[in-house]
Amino acid sequence: MLNFHKEHKNLVLAALIIFVALSILVAIVPAYQMQATVPIPSQEALTSQQEKGLRVYVSENCAACHTQQVRGIEMDNMWGDRPSLPSDYYYSKQRLDVWRQSPSVLGSERTGPDLTNIGARQPSDDWHLMHLYNPRSVVSESIMPSYSWLFKEVDSTAVTEEDVVLSIPKEFFNKPGKKIIASQEALDLVAYLKSLKQTELPDGSVPQFIPALKEIQTGNMGDGNTGTGPNGAKLYNATCVACHQANGKGVPGAFPPLAGSGFVNDENPEMLIKIILQGYDARSEFAVMPPFADQLSDAEVAAIATHERSSWGNDAPAVTEEDVKKIRDYINNELNQ
């Protein structure tokens, strides 16, 4: 029997054997297995700008507070359509340059929300830029630090057509004759964040969350949404609340209010449906709203529109799935002509 108290050579040898065995198990075997990982067929490689944004993401140590992994447990189903797969990280294995391997951006802390699918959850450039400049301008409860050094304060007369000007509420920036514009680093970082979308699997299958199957957003939540269709309140909270806020009042100077809005309360919901499907560009007054036609079904658009038309004091007729389908078909016909 080995006596490590007296036989020091055996102690060192045993420690070496354990070290080598653990190194093989923890590092070499997983690295070898990763070589067999292949990309999802529809997965797109990062563009040059998105790669630069990844470098900014790493240099600002965003992974210290944000993860990029959806675990196969029920509490994670709010971050993505499915649990993450090894193939989701295929392109993240590419080297940054000759000397440096691509960094791990999976993260281990969720001080802030997971970013796996943030490009789909929040596709607005303006929102991301405002959030980086001052997170409290769009999320009042946010504890994220401001990244104001990624922006420049310039005279209004010095703004050019190429500059991206932020629509900051006056309570966060109120200097007459001055504007806040985004640096190229900020634009690159936003491009990278918007690229973070879960790729659809080729066979359409979706790995289920454990222990229960993925919930469908249905049921009576006490908000006037009865029946078995999509739940407008849940969809609004997942899709719209970041800009238009839970109280429907929006962000002054950045995102318009829905409470009391003429578009929302109009007897004819056509304009509201078109805005949801096609987006809206009102740069003179507010930030640009991205289109959601590719992300939301007719039933989901109808549920969101109905929720908006019956909340915060609004009182307008409900929107049906058929209403949305007619307008979507009309838009598609116009585009195809």
UniProtKB/TrEMBL annotation:
Keyword match Endoplasmic reticulum: no
Gene3D superfamilies tied to this protein: Cytochrome c-like domain
Residue spans crossing the bilayer: 12-32
Domain Cytochrome c: 48-197, 227-312
Key words of the record: Heme, Iron, Membrane, Metal-binding, Transmembrane, Transmembrane helix
PANTHER family cross-referenced by the UniProt entry: ALCOHOL DEHYDROGENASE CYTOCHROME C SUBUNIT, BLL4482 PROTEIN-RELATED
Protein name per UniProt: Cbb3-type cytochrome c oxidase subunit II
Species annotation: Christiangramia antarctica
Source species taxonomy: Bacteria, Pseudomonadati, Bacteroidota, Flavobacteriia, Flavobacteriales
